């Protein structure tokens, strides 16, 4: 699966990971273009439905990137998101999809480098796993 | 386009501030005043505003084009009510006194009717000789619009060069050319004046040894910026002037015309040039080729600003920029190749070296233009010996004439963040000559009514920016336009160049109106910086502001994937597709607004906190000033003298008295913060106060963090184990209180950077070089025979502190350099201190046996305090535990949470006058927010569909703020004024009865679908 280019959706909190991604850009730090960001006001908003929809539509991996523990602008949206991710991982497992395709990641707005590192690591992990089995047939 | 109520309400009353100079400083000051609902006139002698910054390609330390970040602010509607912009205008005279000046303004003829000019450029195309010349390298036909986002967006005519005025008039379809335009004089009543004339750059043509301006491939740092700039002479391609080829070896020479005593030199340090050259060298490698060899010749690397030392380390370690400590003797041009030979000497070698380069950049410093000297004389403001505006020693924005303030480079050489701080401080001081903001009448702003789009199918317009080369240089904008056109419901797709320029904004506005668009997608930079600007545009065009979607094609695509253009284009298609299908689901929304608490909480009772509290209190704001210690004063209380010789103790005592006596300030000593809640504009903070730790809660609309820093006491060089080994702070007290001790000494050694600029504390403490020089000078005055040796790595006496450094050398203070890998050693034997250091010039170890060893230990962040507060208030910190401001360049005292500001050493190490300036700046920014009287909370609130709600209580339990409740009708209700908009309830609701407006499920799903639209 060396030449496989996975499709990755990152649900990023406006206050941290989204800003970190902007910061990575302003420092011209490169990360895999496979990662596409959808901005949310808080990872607490990311519904199980949204994660599942991404897989259904063709994502090979999905991650939810929120603030560091204790740093959530809304107290605990990030920990709730973490619980929800764990719950959806279980559903994926039940469906026969590798739960590692979904992950919760935490970082602060100043961590442009961390954004880049996690984008690399996650992409590499999904590349190893290969295409998601539920992937719709490509034209 | 819009009607403004009360637009004339106090244009007549004379309550105005005059800001002179439309560079970044002047713009910031004018905007701060306008935001606080004060009338401002901003004048500039140029035909458009922007100053020096607009000619830079990028700015450090983000290497961004920060013009893009400031330009949105220039065109915001709400400010136009208060801001009167007068280009091509100068101040001729100023009579009267603070609060009631009469200013005489002279406006040069533009020969263009600004009301009519649409900036179509026809006149310029046909008669390029009749427009003014941009000085510098530009070999293309000159243009009067120096940069694409020019404000005001109109041409000007150079009448002397016009040969056929009738023909020129004929060309103009808008009939905007006014051949009989004349110089106009106006007298206006102003309460105060802010001087922000900036400076000009030294012209190195007088330096024969550097070619005297005759060598093609020797350019100044500013010319190099123009060469790299997309709007520059070579469209952003880095090439040599002589043969238009890409250089392989580029050298920068620092301190050209600065820090010297020779022909054409000025003695002061220009402060910003080290960072500028580092930035240019890094951008050269980043944007053009890793293989271009970059070399910087320097005397001392002066990277003393916040996190600038990290930038220097990155330049050296990650980018491989070569640094040579030498002041080159001469440049010789090779006649055939036009290459340049630099001859220089290294201090550790006796022979001179010569090395060839393809291109040489002269790092030229800042100079006061003759026009500023003339202005100062005409309005009776004193100058310092270097012809900069003479400033008060404690409050550097105060000039010798009451009511006249100064900011930016007109006061002293400095970089953009410091200019921004001073500008806000000067604006705050200027406002204090006007009636308190609390008493201002309301002014309202009305837009044209919003179009009702209910029942209409989406008609989407997609507008794609190229952002110069930032987007267009990596991905093909034309292809993105074609792609967008093919998407469902897209009516129009266009490339718009710089989408944020006034021209493009007008084009988009017109397209919305003529094509009857009801949704807009902008493909450009980050919504974090530009969403507001485009939302305003939609409102002007009669659409609800939530019907726009910004697709982040730059920060999260072309910048990150600049080396993978093919993948970047594919990703751009996916992002655009997501934006287009997302915007189709957007709905018109109403913002929630709440009245703001008009109180302020100032945390920290040092010089910064007290200054900020006093400034706000004078403006009628009720201030709670919290100090954890039992008395006011902070770290500044332990400093005795400034380098200028001012008595700090006396100043601090007076300040504390004023603060304690002020009727609007409640001083709470022995008080700590224990909890914090609320929303911006309506914060609630819990305090424990007094010896009995009584609990109290205060309401406040704004918060200023002025918690200061701690004196560093590193475990180094024997500090704490011998009474003769002290810090500079301790030495300062000895000099003041026990001068006889100094008189009895015969030798003293100082070691700089003790505990700073080292791996465990990588930043520069900024204050220590001037502190060492200050103490050395005072001791030399007390005891001229005292031998003083200062062991240093780089002497960073920026700005006018360089005068004191020179004075110290003249008085016989010896400066000996050491390097990080060969630090001095301290031995204590028989109670005697011995210091060993390597002398690079003698090339051997030398030994001292001083009576006293003073360590320049600097400051470190108060980790415990900043950590606690950062957790409670959800604020970011830097790696070394200082608070991290919202934007290092343009919003240096604003934190990311609205209503929270930062000032003084809690942000980064700085001197007392610098802390005072920041305190004024933070107070001014806080005051501007309070002046709005209400806070806009946006529209992203949760909404319950009662018909779906099963009253299961999940939302009631999930909400982090306990807002939902089950109402009389038996379903969950969420008060939009209290909802914070996190969306947790919406995500948890099993019946999907709750939607978070602006982020509804169908919107997010549509974006996900859009991402994969092309794949399925």
Question: How is this structure best described in words?
Answer:
The complex is a heterodimer of chains A (139) and B (1016). Helix content of chain A is 40%, strand content 17%. Chain A has 4 helices and 4 strands. Chain A has helices at 17-26, 48-57, 77-94, 112-129, and strands spanning 8-13, 35-40, 61-66, 102-106. Chain A has a 4-stranded parallel beta sheet with strand order 2-1-3-4, with helices on both faces. By secondary structure, chain B is of the alpha/beta class. Helix content of chain B is 27%, strand content 23%. Chain B contains 26 helices and 48 strands. In chain B, helix 1 packs parallel to helix 10 (416-431). The chains are: A alpha/beta (139), B alpha/beta (1016). At the A-B interface, helix 1, strand 2, helix 2 and helix 3 of A face helix 14, helix 15, helix 25 and helix 26 of B.
- Write down the domain tally of chain B: 7
What's the level 1 CATH class of the largest domain in chain B?
Alpha Beta
Number of strands of chain A: 4
Number of helices of chain B: 26
Report low-confidence residues of chain B grouped into runs of 5 or more. 1-12, 133-149
Whole-number count of domains of chain A: 1
Strands side by side in the biggest sheet of chain A: 2-1-3-4
- Distance from first to last alpha carbon of chain B: 44 Å
**CATH domain topology of chain A:** Rossmann fold
Low-confidence stretches of chain A: none
The CATH architecture category of chain A equals 3-Layer(aba) Sandwich
- CATH superfamily membership of chain A: Lumazine/riboflavin synthase
Q: Largest beta sheet of chain B, briefly?
A: 5 strands, parallel
- Main beta-sheet strand count, sense and barrel state of chain A: 4 strands, parallel
Looking at the structure, the CATH topology of the largest domain in chain B is FAD/NAD(P)-binding domain
Label the CATH architecture of the largest domain in chain B.
3-Layer(bba) Sandwich
* Strand order, largest beta sheet of chain B: 4-3-2-8-19
**What is the distance, rounded to the nearest whole angstrom, between the alpha carbons of the first and last residues of chain A?**
20 Å
């Amino acid at each position: 699966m060396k030449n496989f280019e996975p499709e990755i959706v990152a649900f990023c909190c406006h206050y941290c990971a989204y800003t970190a991604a902007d910061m990575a850009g302003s420092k011209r730090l490169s990360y895999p273009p496979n990662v596409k960001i959808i901005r949310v006001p808080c990872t607490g908003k990311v519904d199980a439905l949204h994660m599942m929809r991404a897989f259904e539509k063709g994502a090979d991996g999905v991650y939810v990137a929120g603030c560091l523990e204790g740093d959530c602008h809304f107290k605990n949206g990030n920990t709730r998101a973490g619980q929800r991710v764990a719950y959806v991982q279980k559903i994926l497992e039940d469906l026969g999809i590798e739960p590692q395709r979904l992950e919760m990641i935490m970082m602060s707005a100043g961590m442009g480098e961390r954004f880049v590192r996690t984008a690399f690591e996650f992409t590499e992990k999904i590349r190893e796993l290969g295409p998601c089995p539920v992937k719709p047939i490509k034209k | 386009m819009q009607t403004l109520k009360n637009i004339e309400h106090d244009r007549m009353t004379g309550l105005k501030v005059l800001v002179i100079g439309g560079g970044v400083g002047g713009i910031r000051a004018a905007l701060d005043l306008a935001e606080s609902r004060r009338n401002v006139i901003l004048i500039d002698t140029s035909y458009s505003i922007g100053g020096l910054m607009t000619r830079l390609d990028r700015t450090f330390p983000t290497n961004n084009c920060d013009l893009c970040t400031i330009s949105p602010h220039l065109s915001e509607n709400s400010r136009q009510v208060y801001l009167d912009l007068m280009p091509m205008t100068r101040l001729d005279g100023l009579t009267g006194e603070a609060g009631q000046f009469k200013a005489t303004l002279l406006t040069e003829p533009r020969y263009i009717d600004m009301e009519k000019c649409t900036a179509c450029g026809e006149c310029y195309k046909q008669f390029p000789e009749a427009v003014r010349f941009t000085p510098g390298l530009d070999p293309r036909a000159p243009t009067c619009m120096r940069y694409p986002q020019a404000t005001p967006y109109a041409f000007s005519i150079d009448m002397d060069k016009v040969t056929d005025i009738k023909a020129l008039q004929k060309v103009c379809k808008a009939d905007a050319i006014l051949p009989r335009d004349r110089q106009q004089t106006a007298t206006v009543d102003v309460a105060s004046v802010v001087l922000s004339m900036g400076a000009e750059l030294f012209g190195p043509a007088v330096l024969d040894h550097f070619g005297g301006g005759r060598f093609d491939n020797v350019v100044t740092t500013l010319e190099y910026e123009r060469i790299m700039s997309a709007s520059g002479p070579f469209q952003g391609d880095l090439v040599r002037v002589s043969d238009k080829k890409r250089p392989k070896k580029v050298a920068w020479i620092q301190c050209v015309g600065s820090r010297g005593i020779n022909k054409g030199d000025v003695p002061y340090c220009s402060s910003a040039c080290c960072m500028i050259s580092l930035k240019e060298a890094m951008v050269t490698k980043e944007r053009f080729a890793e293989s271009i060899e970059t070399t910087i010749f320097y005397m001392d690397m002066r990277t003393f600003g916040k996190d600038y030392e990290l930038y220097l380390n990155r330049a050296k370690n990650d980018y491989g920029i070569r640094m040579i400590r030498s002041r080159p003797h001469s440049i010789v041009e090779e006649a055939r190749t036009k290459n340049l030979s630099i001859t220089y000497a290294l201090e550790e070698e006796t022979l001179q070296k010569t090395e060839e380069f393809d291109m040489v950049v002269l790092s030229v410093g800042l100079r006061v233009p003759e026009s500023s000297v003339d202005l100062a004389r005409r309005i009776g403001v004193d100058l310092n010996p270097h012809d900069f505006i003479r400033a008060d020693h404690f409050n550097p924005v105060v000039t010798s004439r009451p009511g006249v303030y100064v900011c930016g480079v007109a006061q002293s050489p400095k970089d953009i963040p410091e200019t921004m701080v001073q500008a806000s401080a000067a604006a705050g001081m200027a406002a204090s000559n006007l009636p308190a903001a609390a008493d201002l009448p309301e002014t309202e702003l009305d837009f044209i009514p919003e179009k009702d789009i209910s029942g209409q199918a989406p008609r989407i317009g997609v507008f794609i920016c190229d952002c110069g080369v930032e987007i267009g240089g990596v991905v093909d904008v034309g292809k993105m336009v074609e792609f967008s056109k093919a998407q469902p419901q897209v009516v129009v797709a266009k490339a718009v160049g710089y989408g944020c320029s006034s021209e493009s904004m007008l084009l988009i506005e017109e397209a919305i109106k003529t094509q009857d668009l009801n949704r807009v997608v902008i493909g450009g930079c980050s919504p974090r910086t530009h969403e507001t600007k485009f939302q305003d545009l939609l409102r002007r065009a009669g659409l609800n502001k939530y019907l726009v979607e910004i697709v982040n094609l730059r920060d999260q695509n072309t910048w990150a994937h600049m080396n993978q253009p093919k993948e970047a284009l594919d990703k751009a298609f996916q992002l655009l597709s997501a934006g287009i299908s997302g915007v189709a689901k957007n709905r018109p929304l109403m913002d929630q607004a709440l009245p703001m608490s008009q109180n302020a909480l100032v945390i920290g009772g040092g010089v910064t906190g007290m200054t900020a509290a006093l400034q706000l209190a004078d403006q009628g704001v009720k201030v709670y000033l919290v100090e954890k210690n039992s008395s006011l004063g902070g770290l500044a209380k332990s400093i005795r003298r400034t380098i200028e010789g001012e008595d700090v103790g006396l100043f601090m005592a007076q300040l504390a008295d004023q603060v304690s006596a002020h009727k609007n300030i409640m001083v709470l000593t022995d008080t700590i913060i224990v909890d914090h809640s609320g929303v911006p504009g309506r914060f609630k903070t819990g305090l424990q106060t007094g010896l009995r730790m009584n609990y109290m809660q205060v309401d406040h609309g704004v918060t200023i963090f002025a918690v200061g820093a701690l004196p560093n006491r590193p475990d180094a060089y024997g500090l704490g184990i011998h009474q003769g080994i002290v810090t500079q702070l301790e030495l300062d007290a000895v000099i003041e209180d026990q001068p006889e001790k100094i008189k009895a000494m015969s030798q003293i050694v100082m070691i700089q950077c003790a505990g700073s600029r080292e791996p465990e504390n990588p930043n520069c403490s900024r204050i220590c070089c001037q502190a060492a020089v200050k103490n050395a000078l005072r001791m030399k005055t007390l005891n001229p025979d005292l031998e003083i040796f200062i062991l240093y790595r780089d002497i960073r006496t920026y700005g006018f502190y360089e005068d004191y450094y020179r004075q110290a050398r003249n008085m016989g203070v010896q400066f000996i350099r050491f390097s990080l890998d060969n630090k001095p050693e301290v031995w204590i034997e028989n109670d005697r201190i011995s210091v060993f250091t390597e002398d690079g010039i003698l090339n051997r170890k030398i030994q001292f046996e001083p009576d006293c060893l003073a360590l320049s230990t600097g400051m470190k962040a108060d980790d415990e305090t900043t950590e606690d507060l950062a957790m409670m208030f959800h604020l970011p910190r830097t790696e070394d535990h200082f608070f991290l401001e919202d934007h290092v360049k343009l919003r240096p005292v604003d934190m990311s949470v609205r209503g929270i500001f930062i000032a003084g050493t809690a942000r980064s190490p700085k001197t007392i006058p610098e802390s005072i300036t920041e305190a004024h700046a933070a107070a001014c920014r806080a005051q501007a927010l309070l002046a709005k009287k209400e806070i806009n909370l946006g529209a992203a609130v949760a909404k319950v569909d009662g018909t779906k709600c099963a009253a299961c209580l999940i939302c009631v339990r999930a909400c982090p703020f306990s807002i939902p409740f089950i109402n009389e009708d038996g379903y969950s209700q969420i008060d939009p004024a209290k909802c914070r908009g996190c969306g947790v309830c919406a995500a948890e609701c099993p019946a999907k009865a709750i939607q978070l407006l602006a982020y509804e499920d169908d919107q997010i799903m549509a974006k996900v679908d859009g991402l994969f639209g092309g794949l399925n």
